Amino acid sequence: MVSQLLDKYQLTAKKQLGQNFLTDANTLQKIVAAAELDSSDLVVEIGAGIGTLTNSLAERAGLVVTVETDRSLAPLLEEVLTGHANVRIIYGDILKLDPLILIEETHLKPKVVANLPYYITTPILFHLLESGIDWRLLVFLVQKEVAQRMVSPPGNKIYGALSVMIQHYCHAEIIGIVPPTVFLPRPKVDSAIVRLIPRKRETNPQTERLFSLLVRTSFAYRRKNLFNSLRRIFSDLGGEKRVEEAFQVLGINPKQRGETLSPEEFYALASYLAKN
Ligand code: SAH
Asked: In the chain, where are the structural domains located?
């Protein structure tokens, strides 16, 4: 079915765009079910591809706004999606769009559902989560190894900036493992369905920015202890003392490595330093 459709439009999947199209109804159904959709939802999809997931989403959601960077898919997509009046296709690179423009129908609840292009998974996740949009739920199909990093607890080899950022913004869980056989063409690795439920939290833009900087810096110098990686940020401001003080007040050992700090501890550090 997928290959016939591609043939009909004389298209081949573009590897460099991460085009691995879903071919399995069962997997499709699991992804859609995880999003718990009804007509009050606006779903943002990244990567319409040949419209397989888009179609299933449109059957349940109030509105689907799907972003696709590959314009050569347009004739195919328009045909596949003609039956649905509640689908808008936006041709462009998601990383160059402000996600806010995708959710103009503000009376609907914004959610994200996507089989992500694997070569830019992390930038897309950061882009969506740092957009300031009050997403109700996000469901992604990503590489299994990335999903495991997203949900990893501290003190683990795979715990990193992605784990901290995801878990700071959301409650994250893996709800299913998906083998390469459900895609055309088949990727080399297993995939996983991940569901993110954003946490309710007060937001202070200055703390958020500092948090992001602290997290990225701590893991950029993974083998250094926290104090030695973070002093780089504050040395310009003559603020090494403040970092020392923050560690002391918060009861964090400056000799420990960033990979042992929980998302809550990173945030506490950021909010202390933002205030002082
Ligand atoms: N949802 C479809 C396709 C998934 S493949 C399915 O499940 O079958 C990932 C899709 O993301 C591809 O169609 C690819 O062209 C698209 N894509 C890749 N980079 C993108 C970007 N920067 N912005 C938007 N879409 C992108």
From this structure: 2-198, 205-274
Which tokens belong to 249? 């007040």
Q: Which CATH class is domain 205-274?
A: mainly alpha
Query: CATH for 2-198?
Result: 3.40.50.150
pLDDT by residue (tens digit) across 34-50? Answer: 999 999 999 999 999 99
DSSP single-letter state for residue 200: P
Pocket test for ligand 1, best of 27, 43, 68 (most atoms within 8 A of CB): 68
Q: How far is the C-alpha of 235 from the C-alpha of 94, rounded, in Å?
A: 36
**Topology match between the domains 2-198 and 205-274:** no
CB-ligand 1 contact for 70 (6 Å cutoff)? yes
pTM of the model: 0.93
- Locate 186 and state its tokens: 């088949």
Which two three-digit tokens encode residue 107? Answer: 């009376």
- Reading the block at residue 199, the tokens are 């946490």
- With cut-offs at 50, 70 and 90, classify the pLDDT of residue 116: very high
In short, whether 122's Cβ falls inside 6 Å of ligand 1 is no
- Report the Cα–Cα distance between both ends of the chain, in Å, rounded: 60
